[in-house]
Amino acid sequence: DTGVSQDPRHKITKRGQNVTFRCDPISEHNRLYWYRQTLGQGPEFLTYFQNEAQLEKSRLLSDRFSAERPKGSFSTLEIQRTEQGDSAMYLCASSPEGSRTEAFFGQGTRLTVV
Amino acid sequence: SQQGEEDPQALSIQEGENATMNCSYKTSINNLQWYRQNSGRGLVHLILIRSNEREKHSGRLRVTLDTSKKSSSLLITASRAADTASYFCATVPTDSWGKLQFGAGTQVVVTP
Prior knowledge:
heterodimer, A: mainly beta, 4-stranded antiparallel sheet, 49% strand, B: 6-stranded mixed sheet, 0% helix, globular
């Protein structure tokens, strides 16, 4: 399968714990994006990478959130000291370089903070 | 904050009918894309229309773009029960070519 893969698909964690999600993009795609989606809303942009460089971060991405793409391939999104408000679907997408192309989304990681 | 707004928020139609949904956005764009999302799943790209295009077709889908009004519409013709999903428009702003900005979506239910 050459689609975008996210792991885990579901995560339940206690408030205050740290969580880390992984995204494996389509192999030849330079760009990788992270979005957050809450129930009944559209995806909200968090950050994106071109290769290993993190080019833009949303103001939604507080100090508790960090994303990496160390070798320009897979990416991780870590949330420290989780809060109940962090409960959401975290979506990863990738695309080839260029602004005129579609993004390919993974199935998402659903985070529940209890 | 989200870039676009879809209208209506929800749409219920019967199989065979056409479904039309609209999207308005705020800033200058490079292109506008429509995505579909089944409940609890990832998004699937449907169609992309560039800022210098006015209309585009793909199968049963027809998309229009009016940059002067900063609006777009998606028409699904001869709808099927399998078209039941949420539909989102997403824009690529000219000042930030690296990201898609999504609206809140239109939830479409097609009943047999």
